[in-house]
UniProtKB/TrEMBL annotation:
Pfam families recorded: Peripla_BP_6
Organism ancestry: Bacteria, Pseudomonadati, Pseudomonadota, Betaproteobacteria, Burkholderiales
UniProt keyword annotation of Signal present: yes
Native source species: Roseateles asaccharophilus
Highest taxon of the lineage: Bacteria
Listed InterPro entries: BCAA_transport, Leu-bd, Peripla_BP_I
UniProt cross-references to Gene3D superfamilies, sorted A to Z: 3.40.50.2300
Keyword entries, A-Z: Signal
Every Leucine-binding protein domain range: 35-397
Family classification: Belongs to the leucine-binding protein family.
Listed name of the protein: Amino acid/amide ABC transporter substrate-binding protein (HAAT family)
Signal sequence, renumbered to the chain: 1-30
Length: 434
């Protein structure tokens, strides 16, 4: 079967996508053992389908690179060297559909479930996996979380079967509000977010941090909106403008962020936007030059970190996905796959329970990412500890901005670097271990 025919058949079914480089793929399979199945359960259609597809591209690239170097190096007793195989399962952004896809993943013998674009769905998946793994220990699975950042997931709801590779909301907020606290030009701020667990937490915790760090700052608005259902943010932005706010704090993501910043541009809102995700997935192009010096973002990495290894990493991704609209790469998703592979090789097994034990406390030195983005999986709560960057939108070619985002001519420059040890926060996890 040709490579092209293979991909057409499997992509049409939206089920199996193999993480292989195109060149020499058949030979790679012939030299390896049974594939290790990773099940991506994500909204690949619906209002946040673009965010799901961005995740998919990241994971395809990550699995391709592992397979290109020979796959997961396991001993003969564990099947020998084995490739990673990515299952593509569309939850449509719906919790019940995600739970149905989890059952499908287990039926397809996927021992590793990947999800992140909703803390509410992540919470439901944790509960479901806890029950499944107790009931069917012979078919256990791990949940690798790349974006669901509600702190409860590694605190009150922490689970042996769940590992988070993104900094949680309080870590991100701490970095953002440290930067906000130094901006003496901001006396009034407006809080706006999506009306579900994550968005609610960002506004509540954001208020607490602002009050503690800048008691002189006036919070002139605190508003939640439906998730993925608002088509026109002009009424919201008009209220923000009328409030006199000089800054906006939001955890919005996907189209809810893109449409928000586009409306801000349309009404001429000059407030600074302190965001979790303002440096990609349509946001820079949506706001354009009106966002220069006004849109800030916080992330574990961004393209203009400025080291040779970071530049090579980003240039490799852009070579693999050259379309401007595909320009949304996450170092944490690449690190997640690399840490998973390192844990398998440490455990000498692809058994989920053995891998979970090996992943606890595992230090990743970044070498398989070309020497960038080191971190450690904290054993106590399964939170990956990594550095953070706060960056601000600038014109490409200005100091510190070699690369733009999405062909917009606009990129981001580092304002604040937070070392991993400082980004780390205490936890309240009391985990049952296996």
């Amino acid at each position: 079967m040709s490579c092209k025919l293979f991909f057409r058949r499997h992509l049409t079914k939206s089920l199996l996508v193999f993480g292989l480089v195109a060149a020499g793929a058949s030979g790679a399979w012939a030299q390896t053992g049974e594939p290790i199945r990773l099940a991506l359960i994500e909204g690949l259609s619906g209002p946040f389908g673009n965010a799901g597809e961005a995740v998919f591209r990241n994971l395809v690239w990550a699995t391709e690179r592992v397979n290109a170097r020979g796959g997961v190096k396991l001993p003969a007793a564990a099947g020998g060297p084995r490739p990673l195989q990515l299952l593509r399962l569309d939850s449509k952004g719906n919790t019940e559909e995600a739970l149905s896809m989890l059952r499908s993943a287990v039926d397809q013998q996927a021992g590793f479930v990947l999800q992140g674009n909703s803390s509410a769905i992540a919470s439901a998946l944790i509960d479901a996996l806890n029950k499944h793994n107790e009931r069917e220990p012979q078919r256990r699975a791990l949940f690798l979380n790349y974006s669901a950042v509600d702190p409860a997931l590694t605190n009150e709801k922490c689970s042996f079967w769940h590992f988070r590779f993104d900094a949680h909301a309080d870590m991100r907020l701490a970095a953002l509000t440290d930067e906000l606290a130094q901006d003496r030009g901001v006396q009034k701020i407006y809080l706006i977010g999506q009306d579900y667990s994550f968005g609610q937490h960002v506004l509540k915790k954001g208020r607490e941090m602002i009050v503690a760090k800048r008691p002189d700052m006036q919070i002139v608005g605190d508003e939640l909106h439906p998730v993925g259902r608002v088509k026109d943010f002009l009424p919201y932005v008009s209220k923000i403008k009328a409030s006199g706010a000089q800054a906006v704090l939001t955890g919005n993501w996907g189209n809810d962020l893109t449409l928000l910043v586009r409306a801000a541009r349309d009404v001429g809102l000059t407030a600074r936007f302190y965001t979790f995700y303002g440096n990609g997935l349509g946001a820079p192009a949506a706001i354009g030059e009106a966002g220069i010096d006004r849109v800030l973002a916080v992330a574990e990495w961004h393209p203009n970190v400025g080291t040779p290894s970071s530049d090579r990493f980003y240039e490799s991704f852009r070579a693999r996905f050259p379309k401007p609209e595909d320009d949304y790469v996450h170092a944490r998703m690449q690190a997640m796959i690399e840490v998973l592979v390192a844990a398998m090789e440490k455990a000498k097994s692809a058994d989920p329970t053995a891998v979970a034990r090996a992943m606890e406390g595992l230090k990743y030195d970044g070498k398989t990412l070309g020497g960038m983005h080191a971190g450690q999986m904290r054993a106590a709560d399964h939170q990956f500890i990594q550095p953070l960057y706060v960056s601000v939108m600038k014109k490409q070619g200005s100091p510190g901005v070699r690369f733009d985002n999405e062909g917009s001519g606009l990129g981001f420059r580092t304002l604040r670097f937070v070392e991993a040890a400082r980004a780390e926060q205490a936890h309240q996890c009391q985990m049952k271990r296996y």
